[in-house]
């Protein structure tokens, strides 16, 4: 009987150790609502994309296609689901659209915000950043 208790204790210690190791090396979700606040910009030869995340979950998206001379400004309410990996982004109550926008986001090790292509259906949102994604840098405001 004592031998069985001893093996149970050793098994329990092994499982606890294994759990700690797996938790340590599993990818962590590095996005919090506080990290996302601010103005994020992607400016290149083809387009300018600015996304500003504000308090009270307000956001503004400004997009300029430099080749087609198209400007688009959208205001809405954003929601982050940080329990999922990658983090899910939903933008709803967009004043100039009849539908919400859905995407996934991540902040890489260099501090850049990766946003996958937006979808108007949550089931059709991207599942990775391989194709049609944007890389935005947090803008520094100089007074």
The CATH top-level class label: Mainly Beta
Q: How many H/I helices?
A: 2
Rg, Cα atoms, Å = 21 Å
Shape: elongated
Q: Largest beta sheet: what is the strand line-up?
A: 1-2-3-4-5-6-7-8
Largest sheet: 8 strands, antiparallel, barrel
Helix content: 10-25%
Low-confidence stretches: none
Structural class: alpha+beta
| Number of beta strands | 8
In CATH, the topology is named: Lipocalin
Whole-number tally of structural domains: 1
What proportion of the residues form beta strands (DSSP E)?
35-45%
Give structural notes:
This protein is α+β, with helices and mostly antiparallel strands and 143 residues long. The chain has a single domain (33-138), classed as Lipocalin (Beta Barrel), CATH 2.40.128. The protein is built from 2 helices and 8 strands. The protein has helices at 2-25, 33-36, and strands at residues 38-43, 47-53, 58-65, 70-81, 87-92, 101-107, 113-116, 133-138. The chain has an 8-stranded antiparallel beta barrel. Strand 4 and strand 5 form a beta hairpin. The radius of gyration is 21 Å and the shape is elongated. The model has no long low-confidence stretch (mean pLDDT 81).
Short structural description:
The chain has helices at about 1-25, 35, and strands at about 40-45, 45-55, 60-65, 70-80, 85-90, 100-105, 115, 135-140.
Can you tag this structure with a few keywords?
single chain; eight-stranded antiparallel beta barrel; Lipocalin; alpha+beta; 8 strands; 143 residues
